[in-house]
Amino acid sequence: MNIVPQKRKNNDSTMDQKSDVAQQSPFLPYFEVFRNELDEHHDRRERIVKASRDITAASKKMMDSQRLIHLTESLHYKGKPDAFNNRSHADLLSRVRTLGEPLSAGTLKAFKSHINTVAETFTAVSPDLQGINFHRYERNISGGIQEYIEALSFQHYLETQQLLTHEVAQGRLQSFAAEGQGLTCTYSDYLLGIFDMTGELMRFAITGMAEVGALPGASSRKEDAAEPQRSVLNDLQEIRARLETLDSDIWGYNKKLEVTQASVQKVERALYGLKVRGSERPKGWMPDLMEARDNEAEAFSV
Questions:
Q1: Per-residue pLDDT tens for 116-141?
Q2: Selected residue with higher pLDDT from 185 and 278
Q3: Which residue in 204, 218, 221 sits closest to 266, CA to CA?
Q4: Which pLDDT tens digit goes with each residue over 92-104?
Q5: What whole-number distance in Å separates Cα of residue 149 and Cα of residue 70?
Q6: Which residues, in sequence order, are CB contacts of 83 under 8 Å at separation 6+?
Q7: How many C-beta atoms surround the C-beta of residue 195 within 10 A?
Q8: Mean pLDDT, the chain, whole residue set
Q9: What torsion do the CA atoms of 75, 300, 59, 102 make, to the nearest 10 degrees?
Q10: Nearest alpha carbon to residue 298 among 250, 247, 253, 263
Q11: Could you report how far apart the first and last alpha carbons of the chain are, in Å?
């Protein structure tokens, strides 16, 4: 005898009863609150992550504008070796930035839009990072803050030949306040931003030596200045020495310290080649920076 299984019938009345029970459950409102809080958390986190990426991109463009004068020099003489070799020393000095002087109007104009982008983005995301929310989403905004500190400290060094202090960085971040007290510059973000700035100083120094055959800053101070003349290498060595004395457990501190040490060594080797063996090289010789770039990439990949 074959037994044919009967099809399961949908019991609408049973479903309605379960639905009524669910609606009458005292725990349902709690889960609805949890759902709304999670949705709000994810939306806020996405806004902060996007803001951090936008700030990082704009800060990088700010630093690129600082080096725009060097790119202009290279492109102007590209493919014109005779014109390059016949450049006067005054022409070279006019195209290479010196230290302790305000930025030129052209440079300020070049990255004014990037500064506005950073300010608008920080101001827009500031309400999401007030109170305990800053510590909750600190890792999401940290990359953007570090990149901004790098760009700000690089500009500050070019204009004053001094290191940006934590108090000044904190004041700049607090100025981006749509609500509350603005953003907080933690010591870890400040130090890691300074580490990154040393890489910009290394590129600035090597480019300056390639253009005029001298370290930037060596002749930028007045003769009657009370302080002794300093070059970029002197300042890099002092920054490295001070950072080496710190005993920090900041994540990534040791790795960035190694990159900073490598950057200082690159400038030292380039200056050695310029001063000790410069007389052996023909007129118009330009140092090959490919090896330095390869070493830099290798240091970052470690």
A1: 889 899 988 988 888 888 889 999 99
A2: 185
A3: 204
A4: 434 446 677 777 7
A5: 22
A6: 77
A7: 25
A8: 75
A9: -60
A10: 263
A11: 76
